[in-house]
Specification:
Elements: E1 4-9, H1 23-40, H2 45-52, E2 54-65, E3 74-84, E4 88-97, E5 102-114, H3 127-130
Antiparallel strand pairs: 1-3, 2-5, 3-4, 4-5
Organism: Muricoccus roseus
Keywords: Hydrolase
Pfam families: 4HBT_2 (PF13279)
Length: about 140
């Protein structure tokens, strides 16, 4: 999957009393960006559920906060697949300021599970083929 870039505007509801983006909102923004990256390649979550009875769920998240986003900033979430296994994906997500500065780096471990049992199942086609790492996708959280 090529790098996907998703814009987010920092609204008042996203900030603390000092006008700085609250740390938990980075996780919400990253979730939106992952969802839209699947939608933009024609493989939205609902099709995985409807056609295969499967879900992509978060197993782990690592976040390195590098610089704060502030009220009314325009930031971009850049999403890339780092590693793909039979039933799992490691996804890297950079939160980038409009000026190109790095605000945060996330590494998200996802697992494909059965909706009924919530046990791991192989990622079905065409998701498996579409979610292969792009060449030079060596980004890692915090480094």
């Amino acid at each position: 999957m090529p790098v996907h870039r998703y814009p987010i505007r920092v609204y008042f509801e996203d900030t603390d009393a000092g006008g700085v983006a609250y740390h938990a909102n980075y996780l919400r923004w990253a979730e939106r960006a992952r969802t839209e990256s699947l939608r933009d390649i024609g493989l939205p979550h609902h099709l995985l559920m409807e056609r295969h009875g499967s879900l992509l769920v978060v197993r782990r998240i690592e976040v390195a906060y590098l610089r704060p986003a502030r009220l009314d900033d325009l930031v971009f979430i850049e999403t890339r697949v780092l590693k793909a296994g039979a039933a799992s994906l490691d996804v890297g997500q950079d939160v980038v300021a409009e000026d190109g500065g790095m605000l945060a780096r996330l590494k998200v471990g996802l697992v494909c599970v059965s909706q009924q049992s919530l046990r791991p199942v192989p990622l079905p086609e065409p998701w498996r083929s579409a979610l292969r790492p792009a060449p030079a996708a060596g980004m890692e959280a915090g480094g």
